[in-house]
Amino acid sequence: MVDRSRSAERIERDIETLAGPHFTRSSDAIQRYAYTPEYRRTLDHFAGELRSLGFEVSEDPVGTFVARNRPPGESVFGIGSHCDSNRNGGKYDGTMGVATAVEVCRLNVEGGLDLPLQLISFLEEEGSGFGQMLLGSRIMLQRVTEEELRESFRALDDGRSFWEHAEEAGYEPARWRESIHVLDDLTGWIEMHIEQARVLQDTGNRIGLVHAIAGYVHADVIVHGRGDHAGATPMDLRLDPTTVLAETVLELERVARETGQGTVGTVGEIEVDPGLINAIASRVRFSLDIRGPVEEAYRGVAREVAAFAERAAEARGMRAEVRQRQALPATPLDERIVDALETAAKSTGEPYLRMHSGAAHDTMCVADRIPSAMVFVPCRDGISHHPAEDADPADAALAAGIILDAIAALR
Ligand SMILES: [Zn+2]
User: From CA 141, how far away is CA 374, in angstroms rounded?
Assistant: First the structure.
């Protein structure tokens, strides 16, 4: 029987230690990112814990952290997350996942299981150093180009290139393609993370078993109207593009609800030109963020809403154009691993939920190559990426036990 209160204490100790002044660049938030002393000290903290458990510690050519209890070439099961933060971050996003993975390693030793494990803490998940999310895992999966690393990815702090910063920190970015070898011996991968939404809290569940990570479409809709005087122009003589905006926002809500399957749609940016109280707008631009775990579903909503906006503009004598910014496919996770996690979760008697992740994670990249799954724990009121972020180490301790049991069962 695993002593969960002891696990909770150890996870909490790691998290609180890493919330101290040595490990964050801000006095009122967690702020750490690649190639800073604070980030270095965070990796060193985990390295110390893992060495004491008999792990060999290394880093890939750009600084993704790796620790394993078997020599290279032997099969291992992967666990971990990231320990950088956004610039105004909380203590738990990412770091709790790494601390929980370390706890899995401790329980593995204490329980005499001696399961072959490899812990990974990915570089620059949050993109705080270079404005590039999931950078470490994208480098690992070769989802970047050398030109981007050498030239276009630049530090938010000083504008110098990723390449230059990596070299200065003692890494070998010229060998970035070798990062993929970190995954060579992995038979599976499980990342634990705070949920970053309020589903678990509001449904009274302590554990989320993630079977898919949402993909998304990002687009802009631009509606061209005619700028006129708000007082002097009768209602019948207007070409007011904000009417198309209003109709499209409601249509997005309707279609996303009707489509279901976890599909969500948001208009988060609205730009009204000229944006004056006494002027009919000549033009509006608004964004579409449409996501979901089911590719056909969210892409269908994106198509329908784009077509609707064009029709709605035309019906009012205006013109709408839709420009796609970016699209990312949904990532289905590995059923066998999710099932093993479910069996382990069930045996604890604690409430859990099978769910998808609306947020992006490094696991999206890992899942390209390695059978993968994720485990979520609740975070208070769904708050993340903010100093008010809060999560319960007792839930993380529960997750650690479930992950260990699942890995043992998957052998
Ligand atoms: Zn995170």
Answer: 18
Q: Are residues 193 and 111 in the same domain?
A: yes
pLDDT tens for 355-394 read 999 999 999 999 999 999 999 999 999 999 999 999 999 9
304 membership: H or E segment, kind and range: helix 295-315
Q: What is the pTM of this model?
A: 0.90
Q: What are phi and psi of 235, to 5 degrees?
A: -60, -35
| CATH number (domain holding residue 204) | 3.40.630.10
Check whether 328 has a pLDDT greater than 90: no
Provide the token pair at 4: 């969960």
Q: How many domains does the chain have?
A: 2
Please tell me the distance between residue 32's alpha carbon and the centre of ligand 1 in angstroms.
Answer: 13
Under 8 Å between Cβ of 410 and 112: no
| Cα 61 to ligand 1 centroid, rounded to whole Å | 22
Using alpha carbons, select from 405, 357, 361, 339 the residue that is nearest to residue 7.
405
Query: For ligand 1, a single-atom ion, which residues have Cβ within 5 Å?
Result: 93-94
Distance 388 CA to ligand 1 centre (A): 15
183 by DSSP, 3-state: which?
Answer: helix
Compute the distance from residue 234 Cα to the ligand 1 centre, in Å.
Answer: 52
